[in-house]
Design brief:
Rossmann fold, globular, seven-stranded mixed β-sheet, alpha/beta, 38% helix, 5 helices
Amino acid sequence: MGGLCGKSIVSGKILLIGLEGAGKTQLLQALCNNKLPILENSTGYIVKNVEYQGNSPDVVLRNYAVYDVGGAPESRLKWSKFYNGTVGIIFVVDSQDKTKLLTNAEVLMQVLNAEELETIPLLICSNKCDLLMSLRTHELAENLNLHKIRDRKWNIVQTSGKTNPRGVKDAFNWLIEQIHFVEKNTTRSQRRQNRKKQNERDTNNENEDDDDEIQ
């Protein structure tokens, strides 16, 4: 299972983003079994390696660099600097703060429209679900216009880094399995493209040989 912070070779970068106060760092802390200090501001970023051992027999132990990037307005202007090389996105929403729903929707769509993040699996964390005024997942999904997302695998889950760290880890497991699925399909696609290119080269060589014989 996932949720252990380690120092093994990094398999990829996961972007942990959301508006300020959404509880991103607390979720990362839950993934690291509370071994991570919580910052008091949302202007910088934290990088923490999280090990993952999947349930599937074909998934080996991997280590992912999770980039917890500040969600304050001035920090969001710098998010794009972290996009290159990202293999998974975790977008955290404070599910009880209804005043930021429109901003969350706009910011999320801006992120998903980035060329570097095309087809990258997306996990939406409806965070602080332990609070009485929190939205249900289908309500948040509607407000975020998630039905418009057609170019990638996505999932929305209720999370609480404070009261349910197990749920946070389960959500992370889903994301890693999607990343692994994309990697396998990408490898197969690359192999097909390589075979196609090789066949084209072989055909061109045969045509050149035929031309030589005719001369």
